[in-house]
Amino acid sequence: MIEIKNIIKGFADKTVINDVSAILETGKCNLIIGASGSGKTVLMKCIVGLFEPDSGEILYDGDSFTSMNDENRKALRQQIGMLFQGSALFDSMTVEQNVMFPLDMFTKLNLKQKHEKVNEVLARVNLTGANNKFPSEISGGMKKRVGIARAIVLNPKFLFCDEPNSGLDPKTSLVIDKLIKEITTEYGMTTVVNTHDMNSVMEIGDKIIFMHQGHKEWEGTNHDIIFSKNEELNKFIFASDFLQDAKDMRMLEARGKISDDRNMDEMIGPS
Ligand SMILES: Nc1ncnc2c1ncn2[C@@H]1O[C@H](COP(=O)(O)OP(=O)(O)O)[C@@H](O)[C@H]1O
Ligand SMILES: [Mg+2]
Questions:
Q1: Is the CB of residue 40 below 6 angstroms from any atom belonging to ligand 1?
Q2: pTM for this structure?
Q3: Phi, psi angle pair for 155, to nearest 5°
Q4: How many CA atoms lie within 13 A of 262 on its CB side?
Q5: Domain residues for 253?
Q6: Ligand 1 geometric centre to CA of 39 (Å)
Q7: pLDDT tens, residue order, the chain (271 aa)
Q8: Which atom of ligand 1 is nearest to the CA of 42?
Q9: The pLDDT of residue 102
Q10: Pocket-testing residue among 31, 42, 194, ligand 1, by greatest number of atoms within 8 A of Cβ
Q11: Ligand 1, atom nearest to 38 Cα
């Protein structure tokens, strides 16, 4: 579990993250959603320590990251996997070398053990046999999967993905979303995903934090979204008339179901 407490972060005279508090839960995909420029990336960078917040505190499983010494921070960072926007693979390295990189940097495994670990995570992201390909030889979706394999190769407890679907078509995006969700459950990780992709929100949004102009405007689950009356959230999620109609339909259906249940109670009497 990651606790974010009253985080404030600004650049020059502009406050970009304005007093954000939230709990990111273990074994779940915690989504940070919001329009472009709402502060998702800056917030994520504050959580992982790439930016120092101006004030506030971040706790990882109860330990204050904010007040940790460098040594403990370094140890914690090794439990954090990150999938960067655009995958950030090394172009001059093969898939295998890219995935092996964190093992070379942070472990004392021998080459055979490293190969085993690389092949294990490549299999997990359905890329068995792609070891010797270069990033330029594979599709965007495959690059993301290599990025995921690299992010999980050290068995992190915490996984951060900034816009994992950027540049992907909807079908490939779904594959990536499902993969992130599956590995989160399997490995029991605390996963944090920044996205403005509505499909992701509905597909993997166990816990959703909606950012609006630098503050937390709303939080809930993908199911709560259908019934939310938060105006800014509705403007963001149900941007088109078509989607607004779809939301209204779902609410009517749900109401119908509730009144059906009531009728049932009346017919069979209270239990
Ligand atoms: N390094 C930086 N220096 C100054 N302003 C920044 C920096 N990074 C982000 N910002 C500003 O912070 C705001 C939030 O940005 P960001 O977190 O990247 O938004 P999002 O990821 O939601 O699209 C934007 O107004 C952006 O211009
Ligand atoms: Mg961003």
A1: yes
A2: 0.88
A3: 50, 55
A4: 6
A5: 241-271
A6: 6
A7: 999 999 999 999 899 999 999 999 999 999 999 999 999 999 999 999 999 999 999 999 999 999 999 999 999 999 999 998 777 899 999 999 999 999 999 999 999 999 999 999 999 999 999 999 999 999 999 999 999 999 999 999 999 999 999 888 988 999 999 999 999 999 999 999 999 888 888 889 889 999 999 999 999 998 898 888 899 999 998 877 777 787 788 778 877 765 655 554 554 444 4
A8: 17
A9: 93
A10: 42
A11: 22
Tokens 């019934």 map to which residue? 227
269: which DSSP letter? -
Strand partners, 10: 15
* 162, 41 Cβ separation under 8 angstroms: yes
**Read out DSSP for 18-40?**
EEEEEEE-TTSEEEEE-STTSSH
Q: With respect to residue 71, please indicate whether it lies within any of the assigned structural domains.
A: no
* Residue at 261 is within a domain: yes
In-domain check, residue 249: yes
Q: Which atom of ligand 1 is nearest to the CA of 14?
A: 5
- In this structure, what token pair is assigned to residue 152? 């999980």
Closest ligand, as measured to the CA of 214: 1
Q: How far apart are CA 176 and CA 182, in angstroms?
A: 10
Q: Hey, whose CA ends up nearest to atom 12 of ligand 1?
A: 16
Total structural domains within the chain? 1
Choose the residue to mutate in 17, 41, 216 for probing ligand 1, maximizing ligand atoms within 8 Å of C-beta.
41
Q: How far is the CA of 217 from the centre of ligand 1 (A)?
A: 17
CA of residue 39 to ligand 2 center, whole Å: 7
6, amino acid identity:
N
Does residue 136 fall inside a structural domain? no
- Residue 245, token pair as written in the block: 């109609």
